[in-house]
Design goal:
By secondary structure, the chain is an alpha+beta fold. The chain has helices at about 80-90, 120-135, 210-220, 245-260, 285-305; strands spanning about 1-5, 15-20, 25-40, 50, 65-70, 95, 100, 105, 150, 160, 165-170, 175-180, 190, 195-200, 235-240, 260-265, 275-280. It is built from five helices and 17 strands.
Length: about 325
C-alpha cells in the first residue's frame, strides 16, 4: 500500500476558492463525463443539496460534481455557479434544449468565524469550477471550504481551535482510493493510531487541550446553544468500479473514520456527511473499499489539523501543547 496524491486517483478535477477576510470558501470536485456517487448523512443538522438524487432508488446513475462549501445553508447558492460553468462548457444531461449538470453539495457552518454576511455564492462556485479546469489548485489547510473551519466548540468560539481541509490517498495494485475532509466538528480530534487527542476544546489558559466529553458530563443540563459552527463534510474518491448502491455503503462505512477520529461525533448540532464517488472500473470488493475509506478519512482528518494555520484568533495545532 503506497501513499499517493489525491490528484492521482483518476479523471477528476479539483478547484478551490476562498475569501480569506470573510473566512469562507468552497472546494469542487468535477468529473465532466460523470461519476457514480453515493452519500451517507449521519449528523442531525445537515446543510445539503441534491443528496436525495444519490438515493439508489432515484433515476440518475451519475452526477457531474460534488461541492463542499462554507456559509451553512446560505452557501448552497454556490452550486448554481458550478452548474453555470458546466452548462456553458457543454457538460451535463442532455435535455434537448440545454444540458443540466447535477451538482451535489454540503456545507459547513462557519458563520461564527469571519463575516457571517459573506458566504459562497454563484460567483464563487463559478470561479471554483473554472479553477478546476484551468488552474487546479487543491491544497490542504486554510483553503477552499476549510478556510473558516474549526473544532472544539462546546463552550463557544473562545475555546475553539483552527482546522481546515485535509486529504489522504493510497494505492494497492490497480486500486486507488482517497478522501478529502473539511474538519469543522463540535467535538475533539484524535489520532486513530495512538489514541492521542490532537485538537479540540482548549484549556482555560488556551495553551493545551481538554475533553469535550468530560465537559459535557460535568454539565448535564440540556444545551440548546450548540450551533457555534459545526459539521464535518468529506468526499471519498476511488477508481473501484462500484455502482450507486455500493457507493452508499462505502460512504456509510467511511463514517467509521469519523468515529475513530472525532468525539463526540454525529451529534444533533453537526451535519456530518460523506460522499463516495467512483471514477473508474477497477474490480474491487465493496467491503474492502469501505474499510479503506474509513482509513483514508481518518488520515485526511489528521491532515486537516496538521496543515491548518492559526487564524481569526483561533490557534492551530502548532501553537498548542499536545
Amino acid at each position: 500500500m503506497n501513499e499517493i496524491s489525491i490528484n492521482e486517483i483518476g479523471p477528476i478535477r479539483i478547484g478551490q476558492v476562498e475569501n480569506v477576510e470573510a473566512a469562507t470558501g468552497c472546494t469542487v470536485f468535477i468529473a465532466e463525463n460523470g461519476m457514480r456517487a453515493g452519500v451517507d448523512v449521519r449528523g442531525g443538522g445537515p446543510s445539503s443539496r441534491e443528496t436525495q438524487v444519490l438515493n439508489p432508488l432515484m433515476n440518475a446513475e451519475e452526477i457531474h460534481a460534488v461541492l463542499l462549501g462554507g456559509g451553512s445553508a446560505f452557501g448552497l447558492e454556490a452550486a448554481n455557479g458550478v452548474m453555470k460553468y458546466l452548462e456553458e462548457h457543454g457538460f451535463g444531461y442532455d435535455v434537448g434544449i440545454t444540458r443540466v449538470p447535477i451538482v451535489a453539495q454540503s456545507d459547513i457552518f462557519d458563520l461564527t468565524v469571519g463575516d457571517c454576511y459573506v458566504r459562497p455564492d454563484v460567483n464563487m462556485g463559478y470561479e471554483a469550477a473554472k479553477n478546476a479546469f484551468e488552474n487546479p489548485n487543491y491544497a490542504d489547510g486554510n483553503h477552499g471550504a476549510g478556510c473558516g473551519a474549526s473544532v472544539g466548540k462546546i463552550m463557544g468560539m473562545d475555546y475553539a481551535m483552527k482546522t481546515g481541509i485535509g486529504s489522504y490517498a493510497i494505492s494497492m495494485g490497480d486500486l486507488k482510493i482517497g478522501a478529502v475532509s473539511v474538519l469543522n466538528a463540535l467535538g475533539d480530534i484524535f489520532d486513530r493510531k495512538t489514541g492521542k487527542q490532537i485538537a479540540g476544546l482548549l484549556t482555560e489558559d488556551k495553551k493545551g487541550l481538554r475533553s469535550t466529553v468530560e465537559y459535557m458530563k460535568e454539565n448535564l443540563k440540556k444545551n440548546t446553544d450548540k450551533f457555534t459552527g459545526n459539521t464535518t463534510i468529506s468526499i471519498v474518491i476511488t477508481n473501484a468500479g462500484l455502482v450507486k448502491s455500493e457507493l452508499c455503503k462505502v460512504a456509510g462505512m467511511a463514517h467509521n473514520g469519523y468515529a475513530r477520529s472525532i468525539n463526540p461525533v454525529h451529534s444533533s448540532a453537526d451535519g456530518d456527511s460523506i460522499y463516495a464517488v467512483s471514477i473508474g472500473d477497477v474490480e474491487a470488493d465493496k467491503d474492502l473499499v469501505g474499510t479503506l475509506a474509513a482509513e483514508v478519512i481518518s488520515e485526511a482528518i489528521i491532515r486537516a489539523v496538521d496543515s491548518a494555520e492559526s487564524a481569526y484568533g483561533l490557534p492551530g495545532r502548532k501553537e498548542i501543547a499536545v
